[in-house]
Design brief:
The complex is a heterodimer of chains A (294) and B (323). Chain A is an all-alpha fold. Helices cover 73% and strands 2% of the residues of chain A. The chains are: A mainly alpha (294), B mainly alpha (323).
Chain lengths: 294, 323
């Protein structure tokens, strides 16, 4: 076995954290939307892809990365709201398969639309110049942009946590994920909460897209590939559980990152092995409650 | 016109046999007819699980691909130059794959099932991608010989589109007959009960997980047969046979035709293939049209073309739709 330097290993662990953070941003939105509305949004990955493409477009338009970083997720969130209002809303009460099928069709349509506008070959999305180099952390050097991605992810997650735990609207959201019928019976209008959660969830997907673009590449199919990883995260963590999404997202990120370090060929396969193991040992997921959301 | 309509409705089996017997002569080119058979069979396998058992699988590419690679590797790598052997290995590979994925995926119910089947299918894709010595990897499996079929002393060349069509029709007919028999049996009634109410079926004393697993394996076998036939048809197995988009094709075809109707998958496969054939002449992004059409179907025509026709017909003739 070749000598493995501790520094390289530490860098790989850090990279895993960054990748895991991206998965967490997506899985939390997926999980929130599912918990509240019973909708598995297959198009979540395609909205992540839209975030990257919108970011690319806006960066070119405004010449400012920061403007793109701020506006692209808002545009994706707005698009998500329009989709919920105009299409998914019609399917409430029809059973959980129909929204999944609809959003599957939507992601096909989005992939083709993006190919039509920006071409079949992917784009190059570079980190902004201010975040180009590497930062010396004392024990190792680490790309500044990855640290930035990690920081933004952490900030968003803390913000979301504060919103859910400390505000009245957050309280309604949490109650709604546990028992929508009871919340309605208490006279609370869940329609606007649905819209809010769909908007926030899809905006987070858009943010994940523009952040991940420089790391994972920008191409039309990027969304469908990551949605499969997100499904794994959700199965491992337990659908509807936010701590589950965080722990499982980081776990999968680390597992992928370390495997691609030690055995690159297995990196794509290992996530499914982890999923199969969890299914064998703890079918309801690490944080899932048996019987919930089935 | 109205008389013919009534005759067809009164003699469904004869009409369908006649239709498929003359199909190669009424489509623009014969390859399209064979494609319709193969993809119709693929969607038929998916429909057994989704339409009849109520399990939405997003990973049927796995069994289609296993069937194709099973048949292709037998002919191209193992040197066993037998059409029967190739079909057997392909179908068996799909059955084993189905049993494995079914075992894991059926540990979760409901919406998880779709996600799990999708994820496991992607696992097969990555495995085939990396095992390039056996599968050809990204380039696809090439070098599948075109054989002729020894039939009662005759040698029927399968390279001829028309003879391949009837060869495929024989297998599709066999699968269709087997599936009809299964659906009419007590087993068919139990899977319908599971689809309508899983908990109640369980409360009635049925081992629902085991029954679903049997349905899953049967569905994988049918799908694998479609994959194996496809490998013989195009004499190459692209690695995309295992990609998620192939699973999506079965979903789209079945929903366009009508999930839970017997011939809906063939109607859907025909619709999809004709659209693809016509649209790809005028535009590169034909999948966009299919994606939008699929969304419109989910929203406004959830019974699909065939399902809606049957519902109308059933209402007009005053009986329950049969096919």
């Amino acid at each position: 076995m070749p000598e493995i330097s501790l520094n390289a290993l530490a860098a790989q662990l850090f990279t895993g954290l960054v990748l895991g953070g991206i998965l967490v941003l997506l899985a939390i939105g997926l999980s929130l939307i599912f918990g509240l509305m019973g909708v598995v949004n297959f198009a979540h990955g395609s909205l992540y892809m839209l975030g990257a493409y919108f970011g690319f477009f806006l960066w070119g338009l405004t010449k400012s990365y920061w403007a793109a970083l701020l506006i692209a997720p808002l545009m994706v969130g707005l698009f998500g709201i329009i989709v919920e209002r105009s299409m998914i809303r019609r399917l409430y009460g029809r059973g959980p398969d129909d929204p999944l099928l609809l959003t599957f069709g939507l992601s096909l349509a989005l992939v083709e639309t993006v190919k039509l506008i920006w071409g079949k070959i992917g784009l190059t999305l570079d980190p902004p110049a201010q975040l180009a180099g590497a930062i010396d952390l004392g024990f190792m050097k680490f790309p500044a942009f990855r640290l930035f991605v990690l920081a933004v992810t952490a900030l968003v997650l803390i913000g979301l946590w504060l919103f859910l735990e400390k505000t009245n609207v957050g309280l309604i959201v949490r109650a709604g994920t546990r028992d929508p019928l009871m919340v309605r019976a208490l006279g609370i209008n869940l329609d606007r909460i649905w819209l809010l959660v769909f908007g926030v969830g899809t905006a987070m997907a858009g943010l994940a897209g523009i952040l991940a673009g420089p790391l994972r590449g920008v191409y039309a199919e990027m969304g469908v590939e990551i949605i499969i990883e997100c499904f794994v995260v959700v199965v491992v963590g337990g659908m509807g559980s936010l701590p589950g999404a965080v722990v499982a997202g980081l776990l999968i990120g680390e597992v992928v990152s370390l495997t691609s370090f030690f055995a690159p060929k297995l990196a794509e396969i290992i996530v499914f092995v982890v999923m199969a193991l969890v299914l064998l040992l703890r079918p309801s997921g690490l944080f899932g409650e048996p019987g919930l959301a089935e | 016109m109205r008389g013919a309509y009534r005759w067809i409705a009164g003699h469904p089996s004869t009409s369908i046999i006649v239709f498929f017997a003359i199909l190669p002569f009424i489509v623009p080119y014969k390859a399209l007819a064979t494609q319709l058979l193969v993809y119709g069979l693929f969607a038929l396998g998916f429909n057994l699980l989704y339409g009849y058992t109520g399990l939405l699988s997003f990973g049927h590419a796995a069994y289609f691909g296993l069937g194709a690679y099973g048949a292709g590797i037998t002919l191209a790598k193992l040197g066993w130059h037998s059409v029967w052997g190739a079909l057997l290995v392909g179908v068996a590979a799909a059955g084993v794959g189905g049993a494995l994925v079914g075992f894991f995926s059926l540990r979760r119910r409901g919406i998880y099932f779709a996600m799990l089947t999708l994820a496991f299918a992607q696992l097969f894709y990555f495995i085939a991608f990396h095992l390039s010595d056996l599968t050809g990897g990204d380039d696809g499996l090439r070098g599948i010989p075109q054989l002729s079929l020894g039939l009662f002393g005759w040698q029927v060349p399968l390279g001829n589109p028309l003879s391949f069509y009837y060869f495929a029709l024989f297998w599709v007919g066999l699968a269709v007959a087997a599936l009809r028999r299964v659906l009419a049996s007590p087993f068919g009634t139990v899977i319908a009960a599971i689809r309508e109410n899983n908990d109640r079926a369980q409360a009635c004393g049925y081992d629902v997980v085991r029954i679903k697993l049997v349905a899953f394996v049967f569905s994988a076998l049918i799908t694998g047969l479609a994959g194996a036939l496809d490998a013989l048809r195009i004499t190459v197995v692209p690695v995309e046979a295992l990609y998620w988009s192939t699973s999506g094709q079965a979903v789209i075809m079945t929903l366009l035709g009508g999930a839970g109707t017997f011939f809906g998958p063939f109607v859907g496969a025909g619709t999809y293939l004709v659209l693809q054939d016509r649209l790809s002449l005028i535009m590169e992004s034909w999948p966009l049209v299919i994606g939008l059409l699929f969304m419109a179907f989910v929203l406004f025509l959830p019974k699909g073309i065939w399902g809606t026709l049957l519902a109308r017909l059933g209402a007009r003739l005053g009986g329950a739709p049969a096919a």
